[in-house]
Design a protein that fits this description.
seven-stranded antiparallel beta sheet; binds magnesium ion; alpha+beta; single chain; binds adenosine monophosphate
Length: 525
């Protein structure tokens, strides 16, 4: 037996309550945390990519990654002996409305691996229907699977808390999707991603139990979560639940702060897509800021309201936390401490955001009124200038206080989408901004080499822009995985110069501006 299998555990299963009904028909599941369900075998599973770095952490050997068994088990075509896979029951608020039961409609958990203090839960996405599939097929298409596989790893290496991906497989099955919800359904290649996280428990797991007034199972889930993932907290006591909510709030805040730092737009911040560990979870119609626009969302389903636009994400996280507070209220029966934590979130976010922006600019923390003013005026300038978010911050690190305003401006020219349209007034505002920036730089200690080094560790050079993912997808559809592999390798070191990948340090090309998959994405996946 492969050694890693000795680390298999079933903590979630063992600690929590299984659905007594064994049918795989879509239905409401009561008085349970999860339902037993086997993956549905597919026609002809084939490995596209295995994440050897993550496999190493899990102590899965390179030989096993190349084995036939790896392909069959991690595509869902066979189940290891004594393993009983399961789907979790959860609910959620979708676009601000309570949607009732949702659940793992196309995710199937296999087991956990015990590798130190917290387990790794191993989950297949796209391996067939479950009792939570409602009217859908439980499958996933290649394009969305490539996006999840690449992006979750890219986020990990950017230092953003996230679920991860161990493998990407083709199923050999065709999946019918109406990509833009316009009546033009077509068959696409099916795929399965094996996802890995300490747990995939979401705010929605607690919400569904509270909504059904199943307080016994609500408490059981809370106690399991605290004991396993917040072991330093008291469990089973009111104070412990309050402390736990505070930690979930802090972890969620940290996650969103990272999103704003790197320019990531999740796209579907429904409460069923909010991890209880503050991990970025469920990579759907996410997007990357190309030109800086706080009102931008890539999700076509959210085109009108723009509820989940970039600049709104910190507020939505707080709104979602308030829904979690409502759900766990029955364990506490006192609203003041929860409200206090939620109110504190706002203040705390604002000060942390300013500190983070200071760091992006290579300025010391804490921030000061002068620095806040500088950050706010940069925000306005960027909005007015049609400028690339990633490139602008990366290039700002090249500025020293010996440069003239003109030289500073020249340094960031590659990040303007239409430099020719920058009028005299705007240009002179940039010049003023550089002068204020240089004043602050010169009042601080680090020399320009150290400042550049610090800035380059927080402002990534290489990010997975939507158009790049789309090029990898277009090639993958033709069974050419070279771009996928190249991007995967590059995204392991997003802060490094990597001259061999310089071509990817570029603005979104003109052809990608309005192309489906590059600027706008639907939830269809
Ligand atoms: P999402 O918007 O991807 O977070 O999904 C919302 C809900 O729909 C979750 O309960 C998913 O499991 C479910 N879902 C999404 N796509 C499918 C599918 N193809 N088959 C079954 N359930 C799905
Ligand atoms: Mg989801």
């Amino acid at each position: 037996m492969e050694d890693w299998k000795k680390a298999i555990t079933n903590d979630f299963r063992d600690a929590l309550v299984v659905d007594e009904v064994k049918s795989n028909q879509p239905r409401q599941v009561y008085n349970a945390h999860y339902s037993d369900v086997n993956p549905t075998p597919s026609q002809n599973p084939r490995l596209i990519s295995a994440n050897s770095k993550l496999a190493q952490e899990l102590k899965i050997s390179p030989d096993y990654l190349r084995s036939e068994e790896f392909v069959t088990v991690f595509s869902g075509n066979s189940v290891l002996p004594n393993n009983i896979p399961y789907a979790m029951c959860y609910g959620g608020h979708q676009f601000g409305q309570w949607a009732g039961q949702l659940g793992d409609g196309r995710a199937i958990n296999l087991f956990e691996l015990n590798r130190g203090s917290v387990p790794y839960q191993i989950q297949l996405k796209g391996a067939g229907p479950t009792p939570y599939s409602r009217s859908a097929d439980g499958r996933a298409v290649l394009r969305s699977s490539v996006r999840e596989y690449l992006m979750s790893e890219a986020m990990h290496h950017l230092g953003v808390p996230t679920t991860r991906a161990l493998s990407l497989m083709l199923t050999g099955d065709k999946v019918l999707r109406d990509m833009m919800y316009d009546g033009n359904a077509a068959y696409e290649k099916g795929a399965v991603v094996c996802r890995v996280a300490p747990t995939f428990i979401r705010f929605g797991n607690f919400q569904i139990l509270a909504a059904r007034k199943d307080f016994t199972n609500l408490q059981r889930l809370a106690d399991y979560t605290i004991l396993t993932f917040f072991p330093h907290l008291k469990h089973g006591s009111k104070d412990g639940y309050i402390e736990w909510f505070k930690e979930v709030t802090n972890q969620t805040l940290e996650m969103v702060l990272h999103w704003q730092r790197v320019g990531f737009v999740h796209g579907v911040m429904n409460t069923d897509n909010m991890s209880i560990l503050g991990l970025t979870i469920d990579y759907g119609p996410y997007g990357w800021l190309d030109n800086y626009d706080p009102d931008w969302t890539p999700n076509t389903t959210d085109n009108q309201m723009k509820r989940y636009r970039f600049g709104h994400q910190p507020y939505i996280a707080q709104w979602n936390l308030a829904q979690l507070a409502n759900a766990i209220y029955p364990l506490i029966e006192e609203s003041e401490p929860l409200i206090e934590i939620l109110n504190h979130y706002k203040q705390s976010y604002q000060s942390k955001y300013m500190e983070m922006m200071c760091e992006k600019l290579g300025l010391s923390i804490p921030s000061s009124p002068k620095k806040v003013k500088l950050i706010q005026s940069l925000d306005q300038l960027m909005i007015s200038s049609n400028i690339d978010f990633t490139m602008c911050f990366r290039l700002l690190s090249t500025i020293t206080n010996q440069n003239s305003p003109e030289e500073c401006y020249v340094n960031i020219i590659p990040s303007f989408y239409q430099e020719k349209l920058i009028g005299a007034q705007l240009k002179s505002d940039w010049f003023d901004w550089f002068t204020s920036y240089q004043d602050l730089i010169s009042s601080e200690k680090p020399n320009s080499t150290i400042r550049k080094k610090n800035m380059d560790q927080i402002n990534p050079k290489y990010v997975l822009r939507n158009y790049m993912a789309q090029i990898a997808i277009d090639e993958a559809e033709k069974e050419n995985y070279s771009i996928l592999d190249e991007l995967y390798q590059m995204l392991l070191h997003p802060y490094d110069e990597q001259p061999q990948h310089q071509q990817w340090f570029a603005k979104r090309p003109e052809w990608a501006k309005n192309k489906i998959g590059c600027s706008a994405l639907s939830c269809s996946s």
